[in-house]
Amino acid sequence: MGELMGMVFSRISTIFTVVSRTGEWETEWSAVPSFWANVQFLNFYALDEPDMNLIWLDDFLALAATGNFSRAADERHSSQPAFSRRIRALEEWIGADLFDRSTQPATLTEVGEWFAGVAQELIARVARVPGDARKIAEASSVTLRIACTHALSMTFLPRWIRSLESSITLGPVQLMSDVLQRCESLMLQSKVQFVLSHAHPDAHGALDAAPYQSAPIGEDMLIAVSAPNNSGKPLHQLSRKGAAAVPVLLYTEESGLGRIMRAVVSRRLESQAAQAVFTAHLASVLRTMALDGRGIAWLPQTLVEEDIGQGRLVAAASGEWDVPLQIRLYRDSELLGKAANEFWSAAIEWGSGLHESKRKQVAS
């Protein structure tokens, strides 16, 4: 075996492969031996047929999206000739054409249509590998890794964690606070064990399908609020079309509350004389703008209940504009480890107790 490797490395003193950041590779002649070059040679030349390169999958999906080789090459930060070679190499590895090049733009063949789903699945699975390895390594860890939306991390989460500690002993908690889209990304990459966020039945996200599970652990409400005028009435109030435009403060697409607003309120808002004057992904930023009298904002009750109680904010619309929210805890269906599973069980029990308490209140 040592002699064989010596022969291979000896050959590398004559031929080696240069690989760019985008995966382009060219054969060049040189008399400079290099261990790095040896590794690349083994990767591409050790077999008569080269192994499939994961970079080709991203190339394939880029071309499938545009149908234009030049544009897809630009998106992949590659020259078009090198990009085209990689697409052809992928087709040779598959053993069939993936694109019909007789049309402009290029279109997927039947095999290409099938492979598009395969490529997306492979990329997703590869992205999960580090996280899955981390889950196995941390099966005995007592540290909980939770991603939580900004608004809940400042209001609901601290009180909820404190209440859970009456029934379970918690170890270290690693909290990552961000917009929902990024929290979902952390879960999809297995970088966190749990995601805590607002939810609504009409606004589905990446974690609302298998293999993820969720449980309701609380309730909240989006309320349309405005700063008051001198007489305590709303400075801005929703009105029908035909009246002067009312300024509204909205969430960006990254925001989970924005996702809910678009699903539940946006179409109804079109019938109002309303004009979006400011957008942000944080409810806390919209709260600040509303307090400053800049417009109407739909804010979580848990965030503004003190402001409303002290008259700093007032309702800017009737109760029919309120949006009931669930507070849900999401997890992967796979094994989380002892500490994480105990935490999940305690959360389920907490949610059940909340539901039972509400049911008794209704019955009485």
How would you name the oligomeric state of the polypeptide chains in this document? single chain
Supply the number of structural domains.
3
Q: What does the main sheet amount to?
A: 9 strands, mixed
Strand content: 15-25%
Order of helices and strands: HEEHHHHEEHEHHEHEEEHHEHEHEEH
- DSSP E strands, number: 13
In CATH's first tier, which class of the largest domain applies? Mainly Alpha
C-alpha Rg, in Å?
A: 28 Å
Mean pLDDT: 81
Q: Identify the CATH homologous superfamily of the largest domain.
A: Winged helix-like DNA-binding domain superfamily/Winged helix DNA-binding domain
Helix proportion of residues, in percent? Answer: 40-55%
Reported CATH architecture of the largest domain: Orthogonal Bundle
Count, helices: 14
CATH-derived topology of the largest domain: Arc Repressor Mutant, subunit A
Name the structural class: alpha/beta
Distance between the termini: 81 Å
Describe the structure.
The chain is α/β, with parallel strands linked by helices. It folds into three domains: 2-121, Arc Repressor Mutant, subunit A, CATH 1.10.10; 139-218 and 327-363, D-Maltodextrin-Binding Protein, domain 2, CATH 3.40.190; 220-325, D-Maltodextrin-Binding Protein, domain 2 (3-Layer(aba) Sandwich). 45% of the residues lie in helices and 21% in strands. The protein has 14 helices and 13 strands. Strands 5, 6, 7, 8, 9, 10, 11, 12 and 13 form a nine-stranded mixed beta sheet that branches. α3 packs across α4, α3 crosses α5 (80-94) and α3 crosses α6 (110-137). The model is unreliable at 1-48 and 359-364 (pLDDT under 50).
